[in-house]
């Protein structure tokens, strides 16, 4: 992704840029730095516990911005909790010999698809009853949404089979999905409830 440029400061680099992805330190991005970014700039301020720029500071300068952080007290929390449980569940269930790029991309694409689906009321209630609908303030599913594992794990398992790294491939993905829902339902208390603890605590691998 590196480019040959004579721009030497972060502010210069952001002039006209479509996106900023920060994994550095809190406060690294001053509001005026994003003022000249392209329309509807994507700002992923991932430093924890304090992001490179707070969402309210970004919106003050760029109300058209699409902002995500690693914090749970702001919309669009980007956290590996959305990926790891489902990735590992799918990989373990087919006894994958590795977790390859195709499997990781399958996880990403399944999350993209899920984010565009209607959000169950139970998940909305877990966040104070606010309406969650795909858009600039809801780009990625919520960690308590039990559909995440039920979506990611089958996609990862299927990708493992397709790439030949599954030692225990299943014959039908829908059958696997139903079995996974049954197993998680035994722990999570039913298909409609968000999960408040590790769904695999009572499962043996």
What report would you give on this structure?
The protein has a 3-stranded parallel β-sheet, covered by helices on one side. Helix 2 (55-61) links the parallel strand 2 (42-45) and strand 3 (66-69). It is built from 7 helices and 3 strands. It is 37% helix and 6% strand. 28% of the residues are buried. By secondary structure, the protein is mainly alpha-helical.
Q: Please report which band the strand proportion falls in: under 5%, 5-15%, 15-25%, 25-35%, 35-45% or over 45%.
A: 5-15%
Contiguous runs where pLDDT drops below 50 for at least 5 residues: 188-192, 194-205
Q: What share of residues is helical?
A: 25-40%
- What's the architecture of the largest domain in CATH terms? 3-Layer(aba) Sandwich
Describe the global form.
Answer: globular
What is the top-level CATH class of the largest domain? Answer: Alpha Beta
Q: Nearest-angstrom radius of gyration?
A: 19 Å
Query: Distance N terminus to C terminus?
Result: 39 Å
Count of domain modules: 2
Counted beta strands: 3
Instruction: State the oligomer.
Output: single chain
Q: Kindly name the structural category.
A: mainly alpha
Count every helix, treating DSSP H or I runs of 4 or more residues as helices: 7
User: Mean of the pLDDT scores?
Assistant: 89
Task: Report the order of strands and helices.
Answer: HEEHEHHHHH
As for the CATH topology of the largest domain, it is Rossmann fold
CATH superfamily of the largest domain: NAD(P)-binding Rossmann-like Domain
How are the strands of the biggest sheet laid out side by side? 1-2-3
Q: Give the biggest beta sheet.
A: 3 strands, parallel
């Amino acid at each position: 992704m590196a480019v040959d440029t004579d721009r030497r400061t972060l502010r210069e680099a952001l002039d006209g840029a479509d996106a900023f992805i920060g994994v550095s330190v809190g406060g690294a991005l001053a509001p005026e730095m994003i003022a000249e970014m392209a329309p509807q700039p994507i700002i992923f301020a991932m430093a924890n516990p304090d992001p490179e720029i707070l969402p309210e500071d970004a919106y003050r300068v760029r109300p058209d911005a699409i902002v995500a952080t690693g914090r749970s007290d702001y919309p669009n929390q980007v956290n590996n909790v959305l990926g790891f449980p489902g990735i590992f569940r799918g990989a373990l269930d087919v006894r994958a010999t590795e977790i390859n790029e195709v499997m990781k991309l399958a996880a990403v694409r399944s999350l993209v698809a899920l984010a565009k689906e209607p959000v169950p009321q139970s998940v909305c209630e877990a966040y104070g009853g606010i309406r969650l609908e795909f858009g600039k303030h809801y780009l990625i599913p919520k960690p308590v949404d039990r559909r995440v594992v039920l979506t990611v794990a089958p996609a990862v398992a299927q990708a493992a089979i397709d790439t030949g790294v599954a030692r225990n491939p299943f014959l039908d993905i829908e059958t696997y999905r139903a079995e996974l829902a049954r197993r998680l339902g035994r722990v999570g208390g039913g298909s409609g409830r968000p999960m408040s603890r590790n769904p695999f605590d009572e499962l043996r691998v």
